[in-house]
Design a protein that fits this description.
Elements (H helix, E strand, L loop, with lengths): L16 H15 L13 E2 L5 E3 L5 H7 L1
């Protein structure tokens, strides 16, 4: 029996400008279309696909992180 080795995953370079810029763009692409509440403020509760699952509850600390 021959066992195949799984390649070790490459860790991101968190000090790289290119990585950080790309990471921020990915995060903004997820939240920008769905986070802003047209009645004011931001939504806080999202499913993995970006669906807002609670449109009423607000969290103060979380709100400041959107700014």
């Amino acid at each position: 029996m021959i066992l195949e080795m799984t390649p070790k995953p490459v860790k991101p370079d968190f000090e790289s400008r290119e990585f950080l810029s790309s990471h921020v763009e990915d995060i903004l692409a997820f939240y920008e279309p769905v986070a802003l509440d047209s009645d004011g403020g931001f939504f806080h509760f999202f499913l993995d696909d970006g669906t807002v699952y609670d449109r009423e509850t607000r969290h103060l600390v979380s709100s400041t992180r959107f700014v």
